[in-house]
Design brief:
The complex is a heterodimer of chains A (296) and B (264).
Chain A: H1 3-29, H2 37-53, H3 58-81, H4 87-106, E1 110-112, H5 130-153, H6 156-166, H7 168-173, H8 178-204, E2 206-208, H9 215-229, H10 235-258, H11 269-295
Antiparallel strand pairs in A: 1-2
Helix pairs in contact in A: 1-5, 1-8, 1-9, 1-10, 2-3, 2-4, 2-8, 3-4, 3-8, 5-10, 6-8, 9-10, 9-11
Chain B: E1 2-11, E2 19-29, E3 34-38, H1 45-53, E4 60-65, E5 68-69, H2 75-78, E6 82-85, H3 99-107, H4 121-132, H5 151-162, E7 169-173, H6 181-197, E8 202-205, H7 209-214, E9 218-223, E10 226-232, H8 233-236, H9 241-252
Parallel strand pairs in B: 3-8, 3-9, 6-7, 7-8
Antiparallel strand pairs in B: 1-2, 1-4, 4-5, 9-10
Helix pairs in contact in B: 3-5, 5-6
Classes of the chains: A mainly alpha (296), B alpha/beta (264).
Chain lengths: 296, 264
């Protein structure tokens, strides 16, 4: 594998690390299976790309993308908490709605960022190999988000949010407004995914309405994979595991696609992801089943 | 002071499964009183506790805590006034969180939560002091996950958690029922001591008539969503389990035949 392919995989791994953080908050902290992600990722991309093309400062555009992601999360959680729609269904409804909204935002199926200033532009003339620039900047981004997220999860509100996910009755008995924290958590999760979408659009130079397909599965693959490899004993390690899971996942995919003798092509990506996630979910249970079978 | 006035709760109203769990229950508990509650399955004990806690909202009637009408308040809003220990040791704590995280969560009951660190050195010292009195060695295991503790240990910690902040009433929902006899006795003794020391107003539901008479100052029996009898003071002293059964058949005109009540 060439260095370009390798660091390209690292770059997208870091981006999906942000998605993995969001998936971690929804699925692991809140126990809220949130598929909004498939819509909020292109939403972030659409908002950032559209604003940048119209001349906005890229940092401001990226921030707005994050806000848009948060709003998508608020809608999903509100449908669940206030209107009592099943969480999975609520997120699917938002995801579907976002497809239309993303088309409206962009006014067309895709927006190209050719020659426009992005958050990566100021570093373009850096005196290092060009394929290292984006991964380094993204590493900075991701580490900042990582530390903020860990700090948040160990704060009083973060602790209340974690309790909401594992034992909502106990949380309420201790004065936690569980509905409000669910909304906040899903909002933060989708805000991070929106941020990932915005950065993805800027690093790839394009936003496309179909780019969100399968985002949730990749995010889950990262979380589950990370948990399988690294310790989840403390909240910081657990979140870090999600990040490493995302990077390793993208690397593994890149290796698989680069090895000609396997015969995989880029279009097989979603199938491979689905199979990997299924295996990662089933494998630990298979061991259990086998053990039970032995006893019977 | 807790005032409950004509409280009614009906589940599945206007359906074939309609269940009138509370039927106009009224009760006043003065400050500092320790009340025990007995009653067979379906008598309305759990519903009553849930209604006081806010998990179940009353269809009719009023609940006043220190003259404040809390009838429509949800659980989290009442949490500053009501503390609770659940029957199931798994229900009252978060097993995925550590002992200190659980305690830090309970420490903020009735207070606003912000972005400051949930675990601080001064909190940890406080937790250690509280845990040390249990004599279970838990003060050295602040960072252990709650899930590693036995049921009895978890109930003991739940009790400490409930009493970290002041409250107007402590609800104990058969909190020793899921424990083995020795552990149950330990948790009950701890309960009595804490309630006495802090002079708490408490309501303890129990399945054991013996226990209902042995602890507290007043005993209520619930039956079909209402109070069957209510004894305290001199009337209560010297009462024994058969006396309770006699009292029940006298007031209700029927024999108590439910096996779910422990006579011992």
């Amino acid at each position: 594998m060439s260095s370009i392919a390798f660091f390209g995989a690292v770059e997208s791994g870091l981006l999906f690390g942000l998605v993995a953080f969001g998936v971690f908050i929804a699925f692991r902290v809140l126990d809220f299976p949130d598929l909004t992600v498939d819509g909020s990722f292109p939403l972030g991309a659409a908002v950032a790309a559209t604003l940048i093309v119209t001349g906005w400062n890229p940092w401001l555009a990226t921030a707005m993308a994050m806000v848009a992601g948060c709003m998508a999360g608020v809608v999903t959680a509100w449908l669940n908490v206030r209107l009592q729609i099943l969480n999975l269904l609520a997120s699917i409804l938002t995801m579907i709605a976002l497809y239309s909204i993303n088309l409206r935002i962009m006014g067309k199926p895709n927006v190209a960022l050719l020659g426009d200033e992005t958050v990566f532009t100021p570093f373009e003339n850096w005196d290092i190999p060009f394929y290292l620039i984006n991964p380094i900047i993204l590493t900075g981004f991701v580490l900042v988000v990582f530390f903020l997220l860990v700090r948040f999860m160990t704060s009083e509100i973060g602790l209340a949010m974690r309790a909401t996910g594992v034992n909502d009755k106990m949380a309420r008995a201790n004065g936690v407004h569980t509905g409000r924290l669910t909304i906040l958590g899903v909002a933060v999760a989708n805000g991070l995914v929106g941020l990932a979408g915005a950065l993805f659009a800027q690093s790839q130079g394009t936003a496309d309405v179909t780019m969100g397909v399968g985002t949730i599965v990749i995010g889950l693959a990262a979380v589950i994979g990370g948990e399988a490899i690294l310790s989840t004993r403390t909240i910081a390690r657990w979140i870090f595991a999600c990040l490493i899971g995302a990077v390793l996942y993208r690397l593994a995919i890149a290796v698989a696609l680069n090895a000609d003798w396997i015969g995989l092509k880029a279009q097989d990506l979603n199938l491979i992801t689905a199979v990997l996630v299924t295996l990662a979910i089933v494998m630990p249970r298979m061991k259990l089943l086998k053990r039970r079978g032995g006893q019977a | 002071m807790i005032q409950v006035d004509n409280l009614e709760v009906t589940f599945g109203a206007d359906t074939p499964l309609e269940n009138r769990a509370l039927r106009g229950l009224s009760l006043t508990i003065p400050e500092g009183q320790f009340v025990t509650v007995i009653g067979s399955n379906g008598a309305g004990k759990s519903t009553f506790l849930n209604a006081l806690a806010g998990e179940v909202l009353a269809d009719n009637g009023k609940i006043l805590i220190d003259d404040q009408d809390v009838t429509r308040w949800p659980t989290n809003k009442r949490a500053g006034l009501v503390a609770r220990v659940f029957q199931d040791p798994l229900a009252g704590t978060c097993e995925a969180l550590t002992i200190e995280e659980n305690m830090a969560l309970a420490l903020k009951r009735g207070h606003g939560r912000g972005l400051s660190r949930s675990i601080r050195h001064e909190y940890q010292k406080k937790f250690q002091e509280k845990l040390a009195r249990l004599g279970l060695g838990l003060e050295k295991r602040l960072g252990d996950r709650m899930g590693l503790l036995s049921g009895g240990q978890r109930q003991a910690v739940s009790l400490l958690m409930a009493t970290l902040q002041p409250m107007k009433i402590l609800l104990l929902d058969e909190h020793t029922a899921a424990l083995d006899p020795k552990t149950a006795a330990f948790v009950l003794e701890l309960t009595k001591n804490i309630i006495e020391e802090q002079n708490l107003t408490a309501l303890m539901v129990t399945h054991s008539m013996r226990q209902a008479l042995d602890v507290g100052e007043r005993t209520l029996m619930l039956h079909e969503g209402n109070i069957a009898f209510d004894v305290e003071g001199q009337d209560r002293e010297g009462l024994d389990v058969p006396d309770l059964l006699a009292l029940f058949s006298k007031t209700k005109g029927e024999e108590l035949s439910d096996d779910s009540l422990l006579l011992g």
